[in-house]
Amino acid sequence: MSPFHLPRLLILTTVLIEAVAIGIIFPIMPDLMKEVLGTGLADAALWGGVLISAFALMQFLFGPIVGNLSDAHGRRPVLLISLVVIVGDYVVMALASSIWVLLIGRIVGGIAAATLATASAYMADISSQEERSANFGLVSAAFGAGFVLGPIIGGFLGELGTRAPFWVAAGVGAVNLALALAFLPESLAAPLRRPFRLVRANPFSALATAFRLPALRMLLVVMLIFMMSMTVYAAIWSYFAKARFGWDAGLIGISLTIYGSALMLVQAVLFRPISRRLGDRGTVLFGLVGNALSFLLLAFIRNGPATLVLTPVTALGEVAGPALTGIASKATPMDAQGELQGVFASLQAVSMIVSPLALGAIFRAFTNDGTPVYWPGAPFMASALMLVPCVAIFLLSRPPSSA
Questions:
Q1: End of a domain among 203, 238, 261?
Q2: What domain count does the chain have?
């Protein structure tokens, strides 16, 4: 396939823009929530966690439904409808003056947020067997690049006002929608479509099946706890940086971009040599212990410039994720690899439902006006404590035999 194949370029552009649009709102969320609620940063963080959890819950419940709809009716209509709703969601967030309007917008946006899954299915449709893995890599790279660019763009736009990033995200999304309407053909031929069946769209069945497998059960518990602890960055970082260091939206965006860039470097460059040196289990332990130490440091640190310098180091702990995935994959039959990845996606959704609520409540408890101990870093301590049983469970679990 030509590197300039138009449908592929449009799909990659769609994924890039969607990731930018997600990341663009993180730096301004503390100021936006304070503005809408008319309260302090403590309540803003709590309700910010509610919005994240509501979005993730809708993704978890409706992601399989949307995926099966694309199998039944084609990728193009599902993708276009998702893009229309997402653009509308950003317009709603730009105009909303009530927390309840924001919450409804996040719920509807979560239902429609099938862009990445549908884009991946589209990419599979237009790829040969030999190209498929490489093209999936391009999709992941586009999403990662967008997530790195989004926060720094949002930080600078936030200097113009709390609503500016939403208007820009809506405008860029509208341009992408217009391009898709004009130039994106359907990729799934009618003979290959299958009737929609609700029973195939049950988000709980695959999780229940996976946790019944002895070889995977303990690994999945470790993976879930690990994901829940790592959610602290998405859920709390913006509020923590504002409360602890007084950073504005621009500096918060820069810090998130530094972390995202370091994360890409760790995953793309450093993971292989660390894994070769330590092995899969050693790499998992290195990542879990490294994250616990990073969280402890962030729980107590008071120096803003030092935090910026240390931010790339904290990304080193992310090597635990790919290593855990590799161990689980080796214990899973080849004809169930796709299902395993679906289980991981479900675990990620569960962590994004539970952790923002819990961590937001912890942040509020330690930063509200009546708190006896003012401690913005408390959620990072909670994340560090989560990893203690995580390490213990992993050490006590036996390495699963290869499939």
A1: 203
A2: 2
